[in-house]
């Protein structure tokens, strides 16, 4: 299975200088591409039917090197080329509806450079006694632009990847890449296939067996996660106390930074402190999510894990501003909502499910999500649903059958039942993938287009299955017309 790896990297001061320049140059090319694209699209909107005008989504970057940007010659050409490739890939994701149109990359926050295999080398370190490879040494750079060996800490064995990212965030350097993990049985790129296969296996179990093998999880604000077997997963009290302390420090330094002279060394120092305090909370949250998901999947009693399908991005959206008739702003409960958002985000709801999903798959287990509607008001025994069932925040008493339970535990059981129902209904659990759009350019890359594709394109528009032309988003890059070939 293709697995992501992220290791700490320790470049020297001199190496950091070089890498920062590479990062900056790649970003410059990427942003130049984005701006060029915006320019062309604005032009196209104004002059409808500008025949023959195509937006250059290519790998050329020479036009961006001028007298003012002569420094671009001081980095390997592959670094610049990779900037154009990243832009192209972002555009392809946009056409597959997997993301938005490429945006300008900012100079703040995480900064990364994408390196392809010409720019780095993993030199295997072999054990002298056994002759086995027990690690690698990472060398970065080309003969003309050497960076040298950069130490990194591989906390787990990995294969050699085809490309890597080197990133810096808050003063820490990271090496990240995707490589095939041969220890995992799932063949590469087969997560969806594996999901459906495991689901089919589970469908052969009887209802009672399935109920026994299923664990439901209710995510809440007071208790981040309660499972249907009665376990509560929460942060440790000391972690909560430290997070609160770091939050206060972060606010203090944020205020200080705002008062300091813009762009000054002292302001930068203050912002570095802000980043450090912020990082603590992020690390604790991620650690909690990893530990919780691990403890869930190593439990041999369960094969199916069910969670609610919570739309966390929607739930933590800023509330809409309220205005009175004169257009003055009214209170909209933003402060109160912000506190809830913080609680939701700091209990790592999304991470727990995402991590459980991939860890379960590695063990041949399954995670499914179910609609969350009124799961807290439904009786887990007789399915009677009423707001009256909920006596208080903690207590659940069914108004029909008298079933009495802890409210979160009851909800976890309801969620588990819904999961079994979803599984047995036979609906495919993996979403159908959006249709890939052939997105190629005429010219030197013509050879990439297979004869089959050319034939399909040459069919008259009527015969095309659900013509891709009218599905095209407005202002998009026009598909290569058949006549041009
Ligand atoms: Zn009941």
From TrEMBL:
Residues 442-485 are annotated as: Disordered. The keyword ATP-binding does not apply. Residues 349-415 form the Cas12f1-like TNB domain. GO terms for biological process: DNA recombination; transposition. Keywords: DNA recombination, DNA-binding, Metal-binding, Transposition, Zinc. The keyword Zinc applies. Pfam families: Cas12f1-like_TNB, HTH_OrfB_IS605, OrfB_IS605. Residues 1-32 form the Transposase putative helix-turn-helix domain. Residues 241-317 form the Probable transposase IS891/IS1136/IS1341 domain. GO terms for molecular function: DNA binding; metal ion binding. In the C-terminal section; belongs to the transposase 35 family. This is Transposase. It comes from Sulfobacillus thermosulfidooxidans (strain DSM 9293 / VKM B-1269 / AT-1).
